[in-house]
Amino acid sequence: MSRVRVPFPALIPTKSGLFFGGVAKWSKAKVCKTFIRRFESDRRLKSSHPFSLIMYYTYILRSLKDHKRYIGSTDNLIRRVDEHNDGLVKSTKNRRPLVLIHSEEFHSKIEALKQEKFFKSGYGRSFLKKNGK
Question: Shortest CA distance to 74 belongs to which of 61, 93, 62?
């Protein structure tokens, strides 16, 4: 059987019908572990709360190793901080352990990205320095 590239999540034909939401073992598809973790986490969140509002977060992590900051945004803060501390993020892999020092919650992704961009700007860095973050 040849390798099959399957878009994720996928409808995969099986003997008993279609398999949704994962990669069948027989397909031998290569999928990034981080992507699978995010998909599984989001799927559980959406299945348990079908009418919940999705919140977006801008967060700041501090490395205990070199005391530098990392600024990012996400829709699942707990999962993302765990990914950083598990070494799944390339830019913070060698700076572990990381501590969450600040987070802000937003109703839209655009607002969260604007705040992230502000924190990464010169004014944002001076604002964080002035407030001790």
Answer: 61
Q: What is the DSSP letter of 93?
A: G
This prediction's pTM = 0.63
How many whole angstroms separate alpha carbon 72 and alpha carbon 121?
13
Give the C-alpha separation, 97 to 66, whole Å.
10
Question: What is the share, in percent, of the chain residues with pLDDT greater than 70?
Answer: 61
Domain boundaries, the chain: 11-48, 56-130
Third-level CATH fold of 56-130: GIY-YIG endonuclease (3.40.1440)
Answer yes or no: are the C-beta atoms of 100 and 81 closer than 8 Å.
yes
Unique residue bearing structure tokens 């901080």: 81
Q: Say which DSSP state 132 is in.
A: T
Q: Are 40 and 83 in contact (CB under 8 A)?
A: no
94-130, pLDDT tens digit by residue? Answer: 999 999 999 999 988 999 999 999 999 999 999 999 9
Per residue in 32-61, is it b (16+ CB within 10 Å) or e — as a string?
eeeeeebeebeeeeeeeeeeeeeebbbbbb
